[in-house]
Amino acid sequence: MAPQPGSYDATALYDNVDIDMVVKVLAQTAFRKGVISPAVVNSASYCAVVSAFWMLKWLSTLYRNQGSLFFAPKPLDWSEQIVVITGGSSGIGELLANTLAVRNVNVVVLDIKPIQTENFNITYYKCDVSQWEEVEAVSKKVIEEIGHPTMLVNNAGVVQGKLILDLRPEDIYQTFGVNTFAHFWILKAFLPNMLKRKSGHIVTVASVLGLVGCAQMTDYTASKAAVVNMHESLRYELNNRYHCPGIRTTLVCPGHVHTPMFSTFTTPNNAFYRFFAPSLPPVTIVKAIITALDSQQSQMLFLPVFAYSSLIMKLLPSFVRDLAQELTNADHGMQHFRKVTAIREDEIKLVQENKKAA
Question: The domain containing residue 270 runs over which residues?
Fold first, then answer.
């Protein structure tokens, strides 16, 4: 039926909409010279750069973990996991063990002292993880009584807090034994079965001090630096020599954490430290580790945000590096440090002898 005089036929407008019309409109509006303000252009450029950064980061994660562009991995069944945690009787390890136990995970804690817990699915084994013989013996018990672990959290740590000339041989042996050698012993004991199944997850708890150094921590920083590089080499061995990229690896590099091990460390009271380099509660690290395990992806975690600066610190001018050391009190924080964890028998005897001599 023909349109009545004075009426409006809307269909006529849509009949004339085509690509040529769209191009003409855009040419006279959005893409016309002088129409778009510099502020809009700059904002669009900024958004493009940020989007490109996160896109590359996402693609990098997919590449590292053999991921799919369209399909996420199957949700992790926590009830089927057996998690071994070294140093699981205090600090980060204790909180992690109890948190996982609430998820009905079978948790195995290896430590020199028992864990205080009411969770029935946490099994404790007394073990000095710095000694291969003890790890080897305990690992056989774990496999026989609990099963083959599916996740390993190398968390055990110790700090001496002494100047380099005050370190006794026993101090250095203990530091590297717990902070470095234990990682090798745990892998040597439990990695073979992961290789057979071509799956698993290994968490390496290192430290920001594995990337930068500071006074009165020479043995600690050296031991953590060794662990950081061990983790990286392990990743490439799993990918290219064992051909097991499905075994995930997560490196954790936290700053100062409020745990018993560093309870006598003196933190600075300036505004810069509180804002840019805050001390973290253990729960922050535990949440990050569980999220990493749940994601089933290999990754590196630097906490808090300032920890990422450790990756480029050595490239900065010396005066910038020195200023950072000063503002974070890095070279004086251990000045009044007192060791309160992992105290050896020879240290107790030495203190007693010094008291008698005095």
Answer: 82-346
